[in-house]
Write a structure and sequence with these properties.
two-stranded antiparallel sheet, 3% strand, mainly alpha
């Protein structure tokens, strides 16, 4: 079907015109030419275009096949992530080399517009007459999904690039005259899309991976928050307050509604278990006498760990916190669908076998799987946000963020014992010799079981549905909207919903609430889930540059970041190719 969806014209069959001398032949009625208006005849065909939208999102989030979006999807170069010592050439915070010509900006910009193109095709086709839907609710839901994808794309474009051209229909002829909207107008277009179809979504997903009303509500929380920040930057305080109030209202409808709620007690397929690790460099050594428990490291499971276990991430599995997930499927991956799994263990995993080969090596579950570490957490992400009173936190537990690693090389000093971090980090040597390769391992990128190993695959891929939206982030967005609407007590209450769930030793107060606290709490809750570039850039002001310079792992931005920005540059290729109208560059990037 896909090959037909994108065909604009086809060759006219010679047999169809041979001997024809009817004047009606000259009238345009291109039955043998495929256009967006005649290719679709069934609801199933329209749904296949929507399926292409879902697939596009999955590919953008799946680093295995989209390494070119790694800086965006992996948050490379932010306050939270950078690259290890042996990948210094791939750092994304050396501003002597970052400019509007580099591929990160061009590819990210185009990927969102590709999604818009598919959404527009789905929208036009769903509105065609003559397609049988069985029930008009089915057509309305198809239109709602298409509008969601278009809105989601424009939200991301607005957060990353600011105002962009608004394309609200299929473009089937070359155009070179696109005109930028403002950042506020971009957000408003996305808001209008969602509000026009909000009641056409089902209350909860019909099946894993599909969008329901909660996803649209979450997007509206974020979009009104984005709009309010942008309005405030324009000096429109009263309008900004109205936007923040709308963000809170949508937050109330979602968070306090009957459909979604935080998971506060253990659940799912492993609710009576905890992770089981062995200090071993081969399957043969994964025996009870080599278990972490036998060496005195007993790792207890908890509800936060449950959230990230295979089979537990979907609403259908009883996870009421799950709003929208991106599906993974091992069988599909085996059939060569390379986007059907998430290679987080490979991309984000440490490389113990390089830095610690004398006492902790291999690529088994105990060292995080077969990591090659394209991106690593900064010291802020791995340690600073858990210092002092912030350390007592389920999200900092061994099950969730494992800090205990046992020597697995027989005959060596630390065999069968927990290795101190002073040894893992090679303190006394080069400051980056150890810590640039090894670090605590999150349960979000690692597992104690990798399917397919017996069939020859390695420990790089997670075949667990990935959250695109989780209620915890909705709560943090509402907290931020409350803070910006001068309700720090309400913001603290929202943040403490998550801190209570995580059984934190310290609960925040209204006096604690500021932008830094919001960002710190997002880091604790959403590490490896949120797209940090979106978060930092939408904050406005100098938040992004200030935090990048403060928490960057390498010194590059402290020496090369001489401008303040809260937008990525419009790709120079986009500006140059739009020959019939001027697209202005974002401030600071000329």
């Amino acid at each position: 079907m896909k090959k037909y969806i994108y065909i604009i014209a086809a060759l006219l069959s010679l047999t169809a015109i041979s001997g024809c001398n009817d004047e009606k032949f000259l009238e345009e009625n291109p039955k043998y030419f495929y256009t967006p208006d005649n290719i679709f005849s069934t609801a199933t065909q329209v749904d296949q275009v929507l399926a292409a939208c879902y697939s596009h999102i999955r590919q953008m989030y799946c680093i295995e096949i989209n390494y070119y979006t790694l800086n965006w999807s992996g948050s490379n170069g932010t306050d939270m992530f950078d690259v290890p010592v042996f990948r210094r050439g791939n750092t994304f915070n050396d501003y002597s080399t970052i400019n509007p010509d580099i591929s990160t900006f061009d590819t990210s910009f185009k990927q969102w517009f590709y999604l818009i193109s598919k959404a527009n095709l789905a929208l036009r086709s769903a509105q065609l007459e003559g397609i049988y839907w069985g029930d008009e609710k089915n057509r309305a839901y198809a239109i709602a999904q298409a509008k969601f994808f278009r809105s989601w794309a424009y939200m991301n474009l607005g957060e990353l690039f600011g105002g962009v051209p608004i394309v609200d229909d299929v473009v089937d002829i070359p155009r070179y005259d696109f005109v930028r909207s403002t950042r506020v107008e971009t957000y408003q277009f996305a808001i209008d899309d969602l509000e026009s179809c909000l009641n056409d979504f089902p209350e909860f997903p019909e099946k894993p991976g599909r969008i329901a009303k909660g996803a649209a509500q979450h997007a509206l929380i974020e979009l009104y928050l984005d709009k309010g920040i942008a309005l405030k930057e324009e000096g429109k305080e009263a309008e900004a307050k109205q936007a923040f109030k709308k963000s809170i209202d949508y937050g109330d409808a979602l968070i306090d509604g009957p459909t979604h709620s935080l998971m506060t007690s253990r659940f799912g397929s492993r609710k009576t278990e905890g992770p089981v690790f062995y200090y071993a460099t081969s399957v043969a050594d994964q025996t009870p006498e080599h278990s972490y428990a036998s060496a005195g490291v007993n790792i207890e499971g908890n509800v936060f760990w449950d959230l990230f276990q295979v089979g537990n991430t979907s609403y259908q599995a009883g996870n009421k916190e799950s709003i929208w997930t991106i599906s993974a499927n091992y069988d599909a991956w085996v059939r060569e669908d390379e986007s059907a799994g998430f290679n987080f263990s490979r991309t984000y995993g440490p490389v113990f076998r390089d830095a610690c080969s004398d006492y902790c090596t291999g690529s088994m579950e105990d060292v995080g799987g077969h990591g090659v570490c394209f991106i690593m957490p900064t010291m802020y992400t791995r340690d600073l946000i858990y210092q002092d009173k912030w350390g007592s936190d389920m999200r900092n537990s061994e099950a969730v963020l494992r800090r205990s690693f046992i020597g697995n090389v027989p005959g060596k000093e630390w065999y069968g014992k927990v290795i101190p971090w002073s040894t893992l980090y090679r303190e006394g040597g080069s400051v980056d010799e150890g810590r640039g390769r090894v670090f605590p391992v999150s349960c979000k990128i690692n597992s104690d079981f990798y399917p397919g190993v017996a069939q020859g695959s390695n420990r790089t891929m997670l075949f667990r549905d990935q959250y695109a939206i989780r209620l915890a982030e909705s709560i943090l967005l509402r907290a931020e909207a409350k803070m910006r609407n001068d309700d720090n007590a309400g913001a603290a209450s929202d943040i403490n919903m998550l801190r209570n769930r995580a059984k934190c030793g310290y609960l925040v107060t209204a006096a604690d609430v500021n932008v830094d606290l919001i960002l710190d709490e997002r880091a604790r809750e959403l590490v490896y889930e949120e797209h940090r570039w979106n978060t930092l850039l939408r904050m406005g002001g100098t938040v992004a540059t200030d935090r990048i310079k403060k928490y960057a792992y390498w010194d590059n931005p402290r020496t090369t970041l001489t401008k303040n920005f809260n937008l990525w540059p419009i790709p120079q290729n986009v500006i140059d190719s739009n020959k019939e109208a001027v697209i202005e560059q974002n401030p600071g990037w000329n």
